[in-house]
């Protein structure tokens, strides 16, 4: 065991993994020692069904690392705090906000958490199990419709896909791939598609909440078929046999977030993304990309 390994083991012991630490003395609120486990450990323990990472948990993790590393030594501090999937910020801006909790005010965002997840994972699963040429041909053969993008060259070679393009692919992906994808895999993909559409509803009541939870549970009940077929790919396109995928893991936070802060559509970043185009990209294209300060 190296010195760093021994120090890390001592730090985890300080966090109460052996149950010996009395958190009520350190935090003034009696934090359960399970709350300060690293996020990946929670994922293993609860299989995506764990409590939100409360602000008290994050502050406790930072405090434990501060006892072992100087925050001014950025490299050392970052190595330690990375064990808890945190960055090197040692004084979060919200730490003094009364009743504020990141698990509440950091809400799901449809573009990155929902639509990007679809193209980064769901589409890749389908392209992996089916021939790219076949899927591309099916998309190119679809009847063009006003208001929807027609993918005349298919979807497998798309780059820098916008949110609008992702939505247009979602409209047809199930029908296009239904005959070439195993039924269990298709059930999992269809469940995520239902989840995606349901949470975008402008009004969500208790009945909708139950439906959203049900389709997400259906995905988890069938996701084993995806890993069994080797469709989840990681670095160097190698199959992976776990579900440590942040965008999919974040889906379990959607229902609690809707109950706490309302529908997800109100937190859309479409307006700011569009402003980035009109205020940054378009002026940049009209310049010579030189003499920025003149």
List the keywords.
single chain, 294 residues, mainly alpha, disordered N terminus
Helix content: 40-55%
Overall shape: globular
The oligomeric state is single chain
Let me know the largest β-sheet: none
The unreliable regions are 1-47
Structure classification: mainly alpha
**What is the strand tally?**
0
**Estimated radius of gyration:** 23 Å
Task: List SSEs in N-to-C order.
Answer: HHHHHHHHHHHHHHH
Task: Calculate the mean pLDDT score and round it.
Answer: 80
Beta-strand percentage?
A: under 5%
Report how far apart the termini are.
57 Å
**Helix count, DSSP H or I runs of 4 or more residues:** 15
List the helices and strands and how they pair.
Blueprint: H1 3-14, H2 23-27, H3 39-46, H4 55-66, H5 74-81, H6 102-105, H7 110-129, H8 132-140, H9 163-177, H10 183-198, H11 206-222, H12 224-228, H13 246-249, H14 254-261, H15 270-285
Helix pairs in contact: 7-9, 7-10, 10-11
């Amino acid at each position: 065991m190296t010195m760093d390994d021994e120090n890390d083991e001592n730090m985890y012991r300080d966090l109460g993994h052996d149950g010996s630490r009395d958190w009520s003395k350190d935090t003034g609120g009696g934090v359960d020692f399970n709350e300060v486990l690293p996020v990946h450990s929670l994922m293993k323990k609860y299989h995506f069904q764990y409590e939100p990472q409360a602000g008290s948990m994050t502050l406790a993790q930072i405090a434990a690392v501060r006892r072992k590393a100087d925050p001014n030594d950025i490299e050392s501090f970052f190595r330690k705090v990375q064990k808890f999937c945190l960055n090197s910020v040692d004084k979060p801006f919200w730490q003094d906000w009364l009743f504020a909790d990141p698990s509440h005010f950091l809400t799901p965002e449809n573009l990155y958490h929902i639509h990007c997840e679809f193209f980064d994972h769901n589409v890749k699963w389908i392209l992996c199990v089916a021939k790219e040429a076949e899927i591309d041909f099916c998309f190119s053969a679809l009847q063009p419709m006003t208001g929807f993008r027609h993918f005349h060259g298919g979807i497998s070679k798309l780059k820098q896909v916008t949110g609008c393009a992702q939505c247009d692919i979602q409209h047809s992906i199930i029908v296009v791939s239904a005959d070439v994808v195993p039924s269990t895999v298709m059930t999992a993909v269809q469940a995520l598609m239902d989840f995606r559409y349901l949470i975008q509803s402008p009004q969500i009541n208790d009945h909708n909440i139950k439906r959203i939870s049900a389709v997400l549970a259906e995905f988890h009940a069938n996701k084993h078929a995806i890993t069994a077929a080797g469709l989840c790919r990681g670095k160097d396109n190698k199959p992976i046999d776990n579900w440590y995928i942040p965008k999919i893991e974040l889906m379990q936070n959607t229902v609690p977030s809707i109950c706490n802060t309302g529908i997800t559509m109100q937190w859309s970043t479409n307006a700011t993304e569009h402003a980035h185009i009109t205020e940054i990209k378009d002026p940049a294209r009209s310049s010579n990309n030189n003499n920025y300060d003149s």
